[in-house]
Structure formats: structure tokens, C-alpha cells
Amino acid sequence: MLYSAIRKFMFQIDPEKIHNFAIKSLHITGNSPLKAVYKQSVQDKPVEVMGINFPNPVGLSAGLDKNGECIQAFSALGFGFVEIGTVTPRPQPGNPKPRIFRLEEANAVINRMGFNNKGVDYLVDQVQKANFKGVLGINIGKNKDTPEENAKDDYMYCMRKVYDHATYITVNISSPNTPGLRSLQYGDALNELLAALKAEQKSLEEQYGKYVPLAVKIAPDLTEEEVEGIADCLKQNDIDAVIATNTTLARDQVAHLPHGNEQGGLSGAPVKEQSTIVIKQLAKALDGQLPIIGVGGIQSAEDAKEKLAAGASLVQLYTGFIYEGPALVKDIVDAL
């Protein structure tokens, strides 16, 4: 009831302005006694994935805390793990505003943020200040002005910077808002990128004396044949996990709504079914060789259980968390 009143207020304000206000508030309170105001007690439902012990299988998806400014705050809300980013080597402003649009009738959001972030050095500084003891994923990407043929260099640079500070690292090759990024999901481009990152992982493991798993985040807008091709590449390169899925370019469910045809990635309820289909296809193609983290359209405990039944070992929330609030985390964990 309380969150529904807060949401009603928040949804009267421009989406990006209220997002920035929320992040600033959580940043200020996250490392202070004030976080007791929103801290919630969530049951332990431990699960081991990628060799990591997660206190519960419900995580925060990348994109909400791009710069790692609210790690302690999101953990206090009950998430079993927090994924920050996407971060790029150099700071960048992202795409022109407005670039976030609510589609309330569909419980959805369209965004074309474009990897706006303060750069990997700032993020690492925030992680060090947080001194977080929980499970932390760091999601890495490439700068918009880095040519596609040099994308590998950006990922390698970020990986080296974050390796010692992450519990796992996610390679984002599926955002629709950076030109050319999604082409890295296919064929030789994907194989070359993953082979390079895997070699760098081995080098960094020797340097730091610890193994930090690598996950790859893919799009929902894939044919079954493309999913199978990605799965083969993930297996061949010994990648540790796959995150399915990012936002969609499809508009068939929302084209009739205000803002329904805005450019960008669509998240929330309309992506749920396609995300689950991709998870099922991955589960079949991977045959248990690496775990799946399910994300896309989870707005209830039943939605989360559907992702797990399809083959996911963990789930992540973003848009559902915005619409349903912190109680969604507790509801899912309680239902598992």
C-alpha cells in the first residue's frame, strides 16, 4: 500500500528526473543508518551458481545503478545479488533526452539511454567505498564512438579494471541503444570477443589469485537458430553463464499506446513471453553445461517461477521492481 502511494507520486514526474532523484537518495542513505527506513528482511534461500553462493536467487538487473552508487541500498532491499553498470571505459552522456518513456497500461518502459555513465574508474571508486560483502555483478560495455572492430579493446579494458572488485562480470552485447553492439552476438565476431575475454580472464586469475566468472547478456530478438549458435559459442569458449534477456525492439504489444513507438529497448511485461522462450531454447541447446540467469517481464512471484521452470537458475528484476516496488523481491523469495 505504501509503495503504491509513492509510485503514484513518482509517476507524476519525468521518468529520468525521478530516477536520478531516487538514485541520489539511495546513494546518500545506503551507507547510513537511514537505510533502516526501507530495509526489508528476506528469507535465506541459498543457491550456488557459477561456483558463487547466492543468499537468494533474486537479483537486481544492470541498468538501474549504472555507476555503482547504491550497492548497499539495493542489498538492504533484499536482493540476493546486485548487478551494476553497464559501464564503459570512458564517461559518456548517452543519447539526447527525453530517453525514458513509461507505458503504464502495459507495465512497461521504453528507454534509449545509450550507456550513459561516469566511466569505469568512477564505478570502481564507488565499489571500493561501498565495501560490499555480498554478491556483486559488474556489467561492462563499449563506448559509443569506439568502432565496432575495436569493441574488444573496450571490453578488455573494463574487464581489467573491474576484475578484482566483482563477484562476476557480465559482457553486455545486447543493448539496442549503442550502434552495432548487437552484431557482436553472432558468428565470428562473438567467437573472437569471447575467446579474447576468456584468455584475459585466465591471465587475471593468475594475477589476482582468484577466478571471477564471466556471463554474457543476450537479446530477446533472436531466432531459435541464432540462439543455438550463441549457445554453441558460449560452450566452446567455456563462458560461465548467460543472461537472457535484454530489452526488445518489438512493438507489437504496445504500438497502439502513447509512446509505444518510441525508439529504444522495451522492457517490462511485454517482453516476458519472448524472454521465457529464449530461456527455454537456451536450456535445450546448452544441456546444463552453463547456467542461465532469467530476466524480462518479471512482475510477480509466478513470473519468476515461470523463468526458473523454463531453465533459469537465478532471476533479475528491473522494470517489475519499478512498478511493484521492494515487496516484489520478498514475494518471489517467499514463494520459492
Q: What does this 3D model show about the protein?
A:
The chain has one domain (2-335): TIM Barrel, CATH 3.20.20.70. It has helices at residues 2-10, 15-29, 71-76, 120-130, 151-162, 187-208, 224-236, 272-286, 301-310, 319-324, 327-335, and strands at residues 47-49, 52-54, 58-60, 81-87, 100-103, 108-111, 135-140, 168-172, 214-218, 241-244, 265-268, 292-295, 314-317. By secondary structure, the chain is an alpha/beta fold. The mean pLDDT is 97. The chain is globular, with a radius of gyration of 18 Å. The two termini are 23 Å apart. The chain has eleven helices and 13 strands. The strands form three sheets. An eight-stranded parallel β-barrel has the order 3-4-7-8-9-10-12-13, surrounded by four helices.
Which characteristics define this entry?
about 325 residues; alpha/beta; TIM Barrel; eight-stranded parallel β-barrel; globular
Q: Looking at CATH, which topology would you report? A: TIM Barrel
Mean pLDDT comes to 97
Order of strands in the sheet with most strands: 3-4-7-8-9-10-12-13
Count of helix runs = 11
Radius of gyration over all CA atoms, rounded? 18 Å
Low-confidence regions = none
Shape: globular
- Largest sheet, described in full? 8 strands, parallel, barrel
What are the secondary-structure elements, in order, as H or E?
A: HHEEEHEEEHEHEHEHEEHEHEHH
Distance between the termini: 23 Å
